[in-house]
User: Fold this.
Amino acid sequence: MAQTHDRFDYPDLLTFADGSPVTTGEAWPRRREELKRLFQQEMYGFFPPAPQKVAAEVRFADEGYLDGRATLSEIALVLGAAPATSINLLLAVPNARKGPVGAFVGMNFGGNHTLSDHPRVALPQGWVPNWIEQTQNNRATEAARGLRADRFPIAQIIERGYALATFYMGDVDPDTPEIRGAIHAHGQFGTLVAWAWGLQQAAAWLGTHPAIDAGRIATVGHSRNGKTALLAAAFDERIAMAIPHQAGCGGTAPSRTAIGETIRQINDRFPHWFNGAFKRYNDRPEALPFDQHGLIALMAPRPVLLTNAAGDQWANPAGQFEMLRLAAAAWRLLGAGDLDAEAMPELNRLVDSTPGYLIRPGNHSMGPQDWSVFLDFADRRLAGPAPVS
Ligand code: GCU
Assistant:
């Protein structure tokens, strides 16, 4: 049976590709594997294998950050053998912790140096977009230090007892079709998979850090980085929670849509994000064997929070709610809760269930106000942070 929303029929989440129903929680892992295969085959490309070894080198550590409330460090993670991907992970950990803390990990758009004015934070060495800093030659500059600190408000996150880890997306794959990251030597996949793979490796390494609770690591990201945050966690059950913020098309919003971005638009503007097969759906999204409720459902039974803004119709907040509503069948099947709303909530009313949702006023952005929602949700859904004295 297909579900209808607006004018669209979405493939049923609880029906196998051969038409047989998924009736029990025991059958879900098989449906899960089927969805993972289909998403990789028709849309994102196949994930490369995890690196055989990860080398970590601390570039600097400042225990006196934020007047001694946090330790800020940068760690170079070299993933696998040459030609290796190297991630420069910026990590802030609260000093006043009584045990391992929960952590958020997410990619940033312009380089770690845009998030903190700490002089030791390194500038990316490779290509950076020229819409964050006005570069002539796509090279990062000192002028951008701290320019986008409100995107990942470190003091606020530390105050709430969590760690933050972030890296520049271009460390894994520059966001331009002309330059391909080293990881592309390992298979056929689009840039979203490359990024998600990098995020998974960063999360896995964080889980080995003595100050971090491996069971309380959440991915987070804005827009294309939100698509990545969801994709990474959907395909990696070691990640405890995902917060795809304003992720939209190719992430949390339906491909079958009359609102916001379409498959053709995203493929035309960002041909490197998805695989070749996805281009076949440019003018026939209805032929896709899934829609994005299937990707969201891969999070079950874990928590996931979809956050949106009323002024960001490009990301289709209503379509995202519908995807979440349909995905909730997986949580119900597993006895892991349900979406606590039948219709879109009013502005600023958090739907505070394991699959959660929020729409706020305003536009396409991520800032401290959004983080206070993420942190509240994490307090309740990520088993609560270790107490901070
Ligand atoms: C563009 C793109 C979106 C994406 C967004 C962003 O608007 O069309 O799919 O989410 O950029 O990453 O900010």
Q: What stands out?
A: Residues 384-389 have pLDDT under 50 and may be disordered. Residues 223-224, 248-249, 261, 266, 314 surround alpha-D-glucopyranuronic acid (CB under 6 Å).
